[in-house]
Amino acid sequence: MPAPLRVSLVDFLNARPLTWGLLHEPPPGVSVSRDAPSACAAKLASGEADVGLIPSIECQRIPGLSVLGGLGIAASSEVRSVLLVSDVSRDRISSVELDPASRTSAALTRILLKRVYGLEPEYREGSAGARADARLIIGDPALKTRLNGHVVLDLAAEWRAFTERSFVFAVWAVRDGVDAPLAARVLRASRERARAEFPRLVREESAETGLSEAVVEDYLRHSLHFELSPEDVEGMELFYRLAAEERLIPEVRPLRFF
């Protein structure tokens, strides 16, 4: 009997259009764990998972990965769920608290603040110590954040203005030695089920998150897209080049697709 296919997936609303089928009816022989983005990457790197929905930058940090072509989590402009929230004016930001669950968004924050605004603040992970001037908030908490009186940068919108490219936040990846054709069938089937059952997805996620159905539907339809185009891949490759220049990754490795 073949070994089970172990899938680590992101437990955020933004991933549901990719993970819906796996969460509701995983195929026989497929086990699913619901994790933070950083945990998905860690499980894939350690061999605890065969397939992971991982932060896009981790494709450059974890050796021996192939990326599923055509699917991912991307934004063409405002994403609304990856925000830098500041208590001071943008030019006065001297410290930033990063979300430890995020890897791609943390790298994007560093790149944008330096390249666009000429800022190199102190970066802290988590909420230890004194309150930072600005905080990176991602995922469902960002959608629920009350922003009265705060300076807010939507990182996907900032990236678009800077590069004229969309931004890819996460991709499906598999380890070497995994049955890639099987993984591709399973992951594409999960996406197709989400598409077919989208009204039910919206209702259930509204109840789960406490966000209105209108907000959930608008967010998933208009803030994000899940079919990746060549333009999306170009944006991801540009992100890798800038990350290498800022020494956030050692070098740029060509992506391998399956």
Describe the structure concisely.
By secondary structure, the chain is α/β, with parallel strands linked by helices. It has helices at residues 16-24, 37-46, 104-115, 140-144, 155-163, 180-196, 198-209, 213-223, 230-245; strands at 5-10, 30-35, 51-55, 65-75, 82-86, 95-98, 122-125, 134-138, 151-154, 167-175, 225-227.
Order of helices and strands: EHEHEEEEHEEHEHEHHHEH
> Helicity range of the residues?
25-40%
Radius of gyration using CA atoms only: 18 Å
Side-by-side strand order of the widest sheet: 2-1-3-10-4-11
Given the structure, what is the number of helices?
Answer: 9
Say which CATH homologous superfamily of the largest domain is assigned: Periplasmic binding protein-like II
N/C terminus separation: 24 Å
What is the 3D shape?
globular
Architecture per CATH nomenclature, i.e. the level-2 architecture of the largest domain:
3-Layer(aba) Sandwich
The CATH class assignment of the largest domain is Alpha Beta
| Percentage of β-strand residues | 15-25%
Q: What structural class results from the helix and strand content?
A: alpha/beta
Mean pLDDT: 94
**Biggest β-sheet strands, sense, barrel:** 6 strands, mixed
How many domains, in number, for the residues?
2
Count the E strands: 11
Structure write-up:
By secondary structure, this protein is α/β, with parallel strands linked by helices. It has 2 domains: 152 residues, D-Maltodextrin-Binding Protein, domain 2; 82 residues, 3-Layer(aba) Sandwich (D-Maltodextrin-Binding Protein, domain 2), CATH 3.40.190.10. 39% of the residues lie in helices and 24% in strands. It has 9 helices and 11 strands. The strands form 2 sheets. Strands 2-1-3-10-4-11 form a 6-stranded mixed β-sheet. Strands 7-6-8-5-9 form a 5-stranded mixed β-sheet. Helix 1 links the parallel strand 1 and strand 2. Helix 3 packs across helix 5. It is globular, with a radius of gyration of 18 Å. 44% of the residues are buried. The mean pLDDT is 94.
